[in-house]
Amino acid sequence: MSLVLYSSSSDxxxxxxxxxxxxxxxxxxxxxxxxxxxxxxxxxxxxFQTKNERSRLFPHERGNxxxxxxxxxxxxxxxxxxxxxxxxxxxxxxxxxxxxHISLSKTIPIRFHHIESIRKGLQHELSLSMIQFSARIxxxxxxxxxxxxxxxxxxxxDQDRQFAxxxxxxxKILREHRYPGYYANPCFHISFSYxxxxxxxxxxxxxxxxxxxxxxxQYQCQPNAITIAVDDIRLKAGKRVYQLTKxx
Length: 248
Hints:
The protein is an alpha+beta fold. It has helices spanning 45-51, 77-87, 115-129, 160-176, 208-218, 223-226; strands at residues 3-5, 40-42, 64-73, 95-96, 100-103, 108-111, 133-145, 151-157, 189-195, 227-230, 233-237, 240-243. It has a single domain (38-243), classed as Cyclic phosphodiesterase (Cyclic Phosphodiesterase, Chain: A), CATH 3.90.1140.10. Helices cover 26% and strands 27% of the residues. Strands 1, 4, 7, 8, 9 and 10 form a six-stranded antiparallel β-sheet that branches. Strands 2, 3, 5, 6, 11 and 12 form a six-stranded antiparallel β-sheet that branches. Helix 3 runs antiparallel to helix 4 (160-176). The protein is globular and about 50 Å long. The two termini are 31 Å apart.
């Protein structure tokens, strides 16, 4: 799903080892038919429907799984309260999203037999890169998807260069399996609320941007509210979620 800014939203960054010690290039391999997938979180059907009540991004086809890669965001108590304060600025057509994340890939249909190969490839490359960092919330804005069926309240983030390094790794593995990479100029963000109301644009408070900025300023002294750890990268395929980084 491509997200674009609303027209009314605010504007939005050792030396080499000897040849015998060089890291081996990871080569995708097809899994066995009955493989046990590691680091798997199995969402219940009820949870899955609750977290995905919006319409499908593409028609369901037997044998295809919807795949996405993202950074899981731990919602601290201060961040949780700040989100509640922000949503109160808008009408009741805006619903809170139950799980926070930062998208690092498009949501794409893939074949089941590619899931384990992609997972292993990503785990291998991410373990070598050891990319972990913190991003700060910079602003609150509204994004809408390409068909304009859904709009999102989002936090925009800094650390574009660090995110770009993650995207480079993820795109490499996806393209090795002949799947598309991420958008050319992505806006890295955390969606925390959405609305599918047809009149949502007309019903926005005239001063919503100013009110959102005022709420952000109130929480500037609370690092747990505005600082986001980017260290837990996950892959979701259908209802299954696989943890790619971060030791438990």
